[in-house]
């Protein structure tokens, strides 16, 4: 089937969407509430004999009306599965069991069992349907207008209508709508959405500008080189959609269980009906059919359907209390299978904020050296300048004059009558200033200073590691993860340095979103490799969607990363990743305990039912009792500690 291309312009007003979604979620509960009220009322009438005429066809109609809201969708689903060649589903089992209950006159039991099943499904869906894929968040990063030069003036148009070779204008703070080449003399751009690199990118005339970059400095003009559908940001959005479509969803346990459990139960019921003919002298077909129908009703896995999501809800609640949001029960399961963790750098293990790392002053005392530098940087709006100005130099009365910017190189001006150059090595070389070779090996961002034609020193600026970064890597290893990898859009030299400092197994920098995606896809091809990817930026969204488990930093992370991920670390602490793994494993243990309990009780009641020693109400009681014990077991997750 041809995949329909998503047109974001077709999306409706989000406020209207939210109202409709809310109404739909309420409507989902109405059938179960109605059936519950009808069932309780019917049982009360039966028990207290309040209405003498409540029997015969009136009683059948009453319980049928109670049954239809919860039973019809299941029967319909079972029928559709049979038409598709899938006979042995839980829908088929629930249908024949509850209809069998009606056939033998056990109307309340038939309704009760189907109601239990419907409520269990609601619980399960409530956990899973909070899932990712809210593509509306992509509207926040997709440029929705372009100022294009037509008929002697710049006019606002939809970026999709701009052709290759047209001239567009981008104002300060606006997103570049299409890929192109810079016509202005220079430009400074925040490219974090595309590369994840922490430092803004300053480029010169005729250099390439990518769509999705944010213009930081002055009005610029660009000549487009690609149509919107081929632009950088459009490719990222397309990769998110495609990766999400390719990603296989973890199948809910009850689905897998039903494929084994249902045929066994059905064939046992058939055997219970016909096999006694060969072994029992006074075989009566009707009696054994009745017993087989009771067996089918007892076999309904409603206790399992309830106890399993209860365990997962306990895990989801425990995770939430620890600042971790799982978008569905299936991701708690998927987290337990992860053996390879891949992470971004900026914003994931680092703070994404520039700080002075080292000050190396040659000809002046440090404080005076910094006063010269700060006087110059006060004239700049660059993020690096802000980091420099955080230096504490009390009593500074130095003032810069005649400051000019040298495109792509730095600043030139006068401070206290001295000529001061502040910038990169290219600025020094062009002004015949000799810079020590030791600066060549520095991987961090470096600001070199010369005063009156002499090299005066340098300052290095670096992104800081998060306070718990080292602890996070250690705890991830201690949780049994065999391989930790770092993939970053930042410079490879910086990525390698951070990787070495954190003792990460392997790292690679300078990657575009598609490069990250390709690296993770290659990892997934390796046998027995289950990958979790941790990121925070728009550029991480395609990888988050494609990985086995996508984990996003919820505080500093972009909306698209958060919407695309399966797990959100709400506190931005990477140390919570190991805790998420531990919570997933604890939840799985609780769920299997609940399964063992429910299945054990079910087997006992089935044996009693096959021998004619159990009625429908014993089966219902066993399910309710198991569900209650499962609740108590699941509550234990709220009291556990995962330090």
Automatic annotation (TrEMBL):
Keywords: ATP-binding, Cell membrane, Membrane, Metal-binding, Nucleotide-binding, Translocase, Transmembrane, Transmembrane helix. It is found in: Cell membrane; Membrane. InterPro entries: ATPase_P-typ_cyto_dom_N, ATPase_P-typ_P_site, ATPase_P-typ_TM_dom_sf, ATPase_P-typ_transduc_dom_A_sf, ATPase_P-type_domA, Cation_Transport_ATPase_IB, HAD-like_sf, HAD_sf. Its EC number is 7.2.2.12. One of its GO terms (molecular function) is P-type zinc transporter activity. Residues 142-241 form the P-type ATPase A domain. The chain crosses the membrane at residues 29-50, 56-75, 87-105, 111-128, 260-280, 292-313, 590-610, 616-635. It is an enzyme of class 7 (translocase). GO terms for cellular component: plasma membrane. It catalyses: Zn(2+)(in) + ATP + H2O = Zn(2+)(out) + ADP + phosphate + H(+). PANTHER family: CADMIUM/ZINC-TRANSPORTING ATPASE HMA2-RELATED (PTHR48085), CADMIUM_ZINC-TRANSPORTING ATPASE HMA4-RELATED (PTHR48085:SF5). Belongs to the cation transport ATPase (P-type) (TC 3.A.3) family. Type IB subfamily. This is P-type Zn(2+) transporter. It comes from Leeuwenhoekiella blandensis (strain CECT 7118 / CCUG 51940 / KCTC 22103 / MED217) (Flavobacterium sp. (strain MED217)).
